[in-house]
Design goal:
CATH superfamily: Uracil-DNA glycosylase-like domain
Number of helices: 6
CATH topology: Uracil-DNA Glycosylase, subunit E
Protein name: DNA-deoxyinosine glycosylase
Domain Uracil-DNA glycosylase-like: 12-161
Shape: globular
Order of helices and strands: EEHHHEEEEHEHEH
Structural class: alpha/beta
Largest sheet: 4 strands, antiparallel
CATH architecture: 3-Layer(aba) Sandwich
Radius of gyration: 15 Å
GO molecular function: DNA-deoxyinosine glycosylase activity
Keywords: Glycosidase, Hydrolase
Enzyme class: hydrolase
Helix content: 25-40%
């Protein structure tokens, strides 16, 4: 039986000209596509970390966008088009991610004040370094907030977020 790739397009970046930090994920999960926004899996730790650290409640897509822009945080994924398949089933695991198009990070940086890129997990970091080696010096690899990361340590996130606050 042949595997049929289902190519999907990721989300548009969240940013404005005042953005100073880019948080870069890999590609939306199935649950994120269903929620129609970044980190839509309720077990993903991303929004929980931000809520706890900044002592805010982020309950809607609109409140999340406002929060990000208020704190000069841009949010995007390194893969703008791709497939996440395991056999004939859709998967949310980064190890199954097949990028078909990489996001134009240079274009985003030219429109903003971004000087730091925080990669959410190794896959995002490795793809970023592969396609943007000239920007590797401004990128940091943080532990993936995915529920699949059983050894998650929030301390590196807290250290980097303290630079924003």
């Amino acid at each position: 039986m042949a595997v049929v790739l289902q190519i999907k397009t990721g989300f548009e970046p969240i940013f404005d000209k005042e953005s100073k930090i880019l948080i870069l994920g890999s590609f939306p999960s199935r649950m994120s596509f269903e929620a129609e926004f970044y980190y839509g899996n309720p077990r993903n730790r991303f929004w929980k970390i931000l809520q706890e650290f900044f002592n805010v409640e982020l309950t809607s897509v609109e409140s999340k966008k406002i929060f990000l822009l208020h704190h000069h945080i841009a949010l995007w994924d390194i893969v703008s088009r791709g497939s996440n398949m395991q056999g004939n089933r859709e998967s949310s695991m980064d190890k199954n991610l097949l990028p078909t198009e990489i996001s134009p990070i240079d274009t985003l940086l030219a429109k903003t004040k971004i000087k730091t890129i925080l990669c959410n997990g190794k896959k995002a970091y490795l793809l970023f370094c592969e396609y943007y080696p000239h920007l590797k010096n401004i990128a940091k690899c943080l532990p993936s907030t995915s529920p699949a990361n059983v050894k998650f340590d929030s301390q590196p996130w807290k250290i980097e977020l303290s630079q924003i606050k």
